[in-house]
């Protein structure tokens, strides 16, 4: 664990990106559009490509999150992140977390979970 004094008060940034060919409507929030073929190689065994071919193309979103974790930790310390997804339907989610250092991936964790129903 780290002390409060180790944390800096910095701005946190979450960027939501819509993946797929569908056109947004006026009621939709403005999101960056990404052609799915640009990121297929980031998912194992063509899984994103297969999901997009089977499912509705307007149901895929990517969340990009950056964090500067340049803090001093004891060698036996644990750095953990927790997330909660909420929705009105029980939808299975696949969450891929990658840690990169100096532009190279050093760790990847893939979790499959469900939404917390509200």
TrEMBL record:
Listed GO MF terms: DNA-binding transcription factor activity, RNA polymerase II-specific; RNA polymerase II cis-regulatory region sequence-specific DNA binding
One Pfam assignment: YBD
Domain annotation YAP binding: ranges: 13-114
Keyword terms of this UniProt record: DNA-binding, Nucleus, Transcription, Transcription regulation
Cellular localisation: Nucleus
This protein's record includes keyword Transcription regulation: yes
This protein's GO CC annotations: nucleus; transcription regulator complex
Domain of life: Eukaryota
GO biological process, one term: embryonic organ development
Main subcellular location: nucleus
Alphabetical list of Gene3D superfamilies matching this protein: 2.70.50.80
Keyword DNA-binding: yes
PANTHER family, alphabetized: PROTEIN SCALLOPED, TRANSCRIPTIONAL ENHANCER FACTOR TEF RELATED
Name used for this protein in its record: TEA domain family member 3 a
Naturally occurring in which organism (per UniProt): Paragonimus heterotremus
